[in-house]
Amino acid sequence: MRIARYVVGENPVYGVVELAEDGGEHPDTILALTGDPLAGPVKYTGERVHLDDVRLVAPVIPRSKIVAIGRNYVEHIRELGNAIPEQPVSFLKPNTAVIGPGEPIVLPRVAREVHYEGELAVVIGRICRDVPAERVADVVFGYTVANDVSARDLQKSDVQWGRAKGFDTFCPLGPWIATHLTVEEASDLEIVTSVQHADGTRVEGQRASTALMMRGISELVQFVSSWCTLLPGDVILTGTPAGVGPIVPGDRVDITIEGIGTLSNPVVAQDA
User: Fold this and answer.
1) From CA 174, how far away is CA 261, in angstroms rounded?
2) Among 63, 85, 136, 272, whose Cα sits 20 to 30 Å from the Cα of 199?
3) Are 142 and 120 in contact (CB under 8 A)?
4) Which residues contact 201 (CB under 8 A, 6 or more apart)?
5) How far apart are CA 116 and CA 164, in angstroms?
6) Is there a single domain that holds both residue 76 and residue 17?
7) Same structural domain for residues 48 and 92?
8) How many CB atoms lie within 10 A of CB 226?
9) What is the tens place of the pLDDT at every residue in 148-158?
10) Which of 106, 15, 22, 19 is nearest to 54 (CA)?
């Protein structure tokens, strides 16, 4: 099942997406739900709309936090010249950094070098703490695509990464949450990131598998929940593979994760 959050009129609502590739009776439509599936039981309203007639927004706005994992792919560690960490590297991104599909990534005036980072995101479905690895599936609501946008020059100059990775618009999520994937399935998905430039040329930056993560989904959820309580809607970013690169105004970043979908965002400059 794919859970989307979309706007018809003014207020965002949730719905279940049925794609043409699924072979169902209602291709490329969304069946509306009565409420927020991360907050409690929901029902179908009976209303169905076509995907082309709605605006998708971020499938989740974390109620409390986004916990990101850094340096979780060996080749990415090497491309940036960093040492392989003995423990998971974690940091927080504010929920104000979240945007949805099609919304612009705004490059701040203070940053000179901003990079994309395509990542698998884990969406938590229930309150949990100290989750053992064998119980991780019980607390995961689903998976979505994320872009851990990073001001690389500020990341290098600051002691902490909060500013470099926490600007408004620096955490695109979407296009929806895939709830049908098991932990095992999500642990071997292809990630492809490409950038389309203003002149129409497209460059592929990342092509890898989540199977290359040094620490997998179960280990990461176990680790994060060992030091903080996770709430429904919290998001864990699992790290990015090699191939990160710069983005500039006029670019469009497309991140596709097998079995989930494509997250696409244009890049603009901050207003003077």
Assistant:
1) 8
2) 272
3) no
4) none
5) 12
6) no
7) no
8) 10
9) 999 999 999 99
10) 15
> Furthest-apart CA pair in the chain: how many Å?
54
d(CA 231, CA 189): 25
Residue owning tokens 């618009």: 169
Residues 152 and 180 in one domain: yes
Q: Tell me the two tokens of residue 206.
A: 């990342």
| Nearest Cα residue to 221 out of 117, 143, 118 | 143
pTM, rounded to two decimals:
0.97
Mention every residue, 6+ apart, whose C-beta is less than 8 A from residue 159.
Answer: none
* Amino acid residing at 19: L
Q: Which residue, chain included where needed, has tokens 């029902």? A: 43
> Do 204 and 78 lie in a common domain?
yes
User: Which pLDDT tens digit goes with each residue over 217-238?
Assistant: 999 999 999 999 999 999 999 9
Specify the pLDDT at position 94: 97
A 10 A CB-CB count for 138 gives 11
85: its two tokens: 């960490």
